[in-house]
Structure formats: structure tokens, C-alpha cells
Amino acid sequence: MTLAISNLDVSIAGIPILRDVSMEVPSGRMVGLIGRNGAGKTTLIRSIMGLTSLSGKIVFDGASIGDKEAHHRARMGISYLPEDRRLIPTLTVEENILMPAWANKLKDAPARLDWIYSLMPEIAQYRDRKALQLSGGQQKLVALGRALMPGRRLLLLDEPFEGVAPVLSRRLTEVIGTLRNEGLCVLLSESDATHSSDLVDQVFHIERGVVTAH
Ligand SMILES: Nc1ncnc2c1ncn2[C@@H]1O[C@H](COP(=O)(O)OP(=O)(O)OP(=O)(O)O)[C@@H](O)[C@H]1O
């Protein structure tokens, strides 16, 4: 279940954003991607998810996925927590979590929902509340639940701790640690290593679109 990226180049509007990126997220490992604002973290994560046009190679679980559509990658078990939460404010917590199940017509949605609630019992408590009634940190947990609904083989977390209060950051760290122990591959970006240093097995740094291993 390794993710292997080689010689990835991404330009947006003719401007090179990622340059010759090669890196690996080994099976069952948690890898950190550390870089300042604008370094290219989001662009790299979006490229893995299939949301940019790119040149280079992305291989997941032995299959070349660089030219596959985002929904195909989602079906392979790749899930993505965007930096902004993008919950639908007028839907309930449970409806937000179930959205990807409806979109992908998942038959085992109830079992997946149970697993998400057992991972984060606190969100089960406010399952019937509208998303707009939650704090930013609570919404982040719900967004993580929603990201885990379609697939749980490779989890891409884009700055999950950004703007989250300390108590909920600790809780988020705990939940991500549990996921790692369950064998998920995780790629987690952060602007510095404050929260991720205790979690990750390996760190890559990104600066102006260039990735280096540390
Ligand atoms: N749609 C776009 N159009 C033009 N430039 C873009 C676009 N998206 C990203 N960029 C540029 O690409 C570079 C990398 O942006 P990216 O969002 O990937 O960085 P980041 O490391 O995730 O930063 P942040 O922490 O601020 O989200 C930045 O210079 C940004 O201005």
C-alpha cells in the first residue's frame, strides 16, 4: 500500500509550483510534509488526490494513478482532509459525514459510520446538530470523519491543526495516532513540526516547490 511519487512537476497558470518532487509514504507509515505558507503543500496533496494536472509518476499500491480521476483515487481508498473544512453548514453532522457515501453509492455506509463514531465518540453525540452550530475544532473532527467515510487506506491531511484550539488539537493528535496504529498510510502537512513531530515516522521538507527528505 505504498505511495510513491517520482519526478512530479506541477504548474498552475504556467507558473511552476512543484519541481521534480520524488518521495514515498511507505505502507502503514505516517509521513510529515513541513513547509511555510505558499511552499506547495496543498498543491502536492491535491496532486496526489487528482485535483491538478501534472507530469511525473504517482504509484499507489502498485498501480499508476497519475492519470486517474479524483473519484477513481477515492475509490482506491485515498481520502483527503482539505485545509478549510468545507462542511455544508445547513446539513447535520451525520449528513455531512454521509455525503461521500451517497456520492459513491457505498452499500456499507452504516458500518463505516459506526466505525467513525467509535473512533470519535464525541461526534456521535452531536450527530443531529447542524454543522454551523459547531466550533471550528469540532468541525475539523467531523471533516476528518467525512474524509474517512469513502476510504481508509491512504489519508492525506492538509494542515489539520491549523486554527484548532489546543484541547481539540490534542484530541486530533490522539485520533490520528489511532489511525496510524490501525495501519493507515498517512501524509500530514504542517507549516512547522509543532504537532506532527511526535506522530510521524519520517519528515519531508518542502520549500518553493522542492521536496527534500530529512
Ligand atoms: N490556483 C492557483 N493559481 C495561482 N497560483 C496558485 C494557485 N494555487 C496555488 N498557487 C501558488 O502556488 C504556491 C503554492 O501554494 P500551496 O497552496 O500549494 O502552498 P501551501 O504550502 O499549501 O501554503 P498554505 O499553507 O498557504 O496553504 C503559492 O505560491 C501559491 O500562490
UniProtKB/TrEMBL annotation:
**Top-rank taxon, per record:** Bacteria
Looking up InterPro entries in the UniProt record yields: AAA+_ATPase (IPR003593), ABC_transporter-like_ATP-bd (IPR003439), ABC_transporter-like_CS (IPR017871), BCAA_Transport_ATP-bd_LivF (IPR052156), P-loop_NTPase (IPR027417)
User: Where does the ABC transporter domain lie?
Assistant: 3-213
| Gene Ontology terms, MF aspect | ATP binding
What SMART domains does this protein's entry cite? Answer: AAA
Keyword field:
Amino-acid transport, ATP-binding, Nucleotide-binding, Transport
* PROSITE patterns given in the database record: ABC_TRANSPORTER_1 (PS00211), ABC_TRANSPORTER_2 (PS50893)
| Record PANTHER family | HIGH-AFFINITY BRANCHED-CHAIN AMINO ACID TRANSPORT ATP-BINDING PROTEIN LIVF (PTHR43820:SF4)
Q: Which family does it belong to?
A: Belongs to the ABC transporter superfamily.
Descriptive protein name = Branched-chain amino acid transport system ATP-binding protein
> What species was this sequence derived from?
Xanthobacter agilis
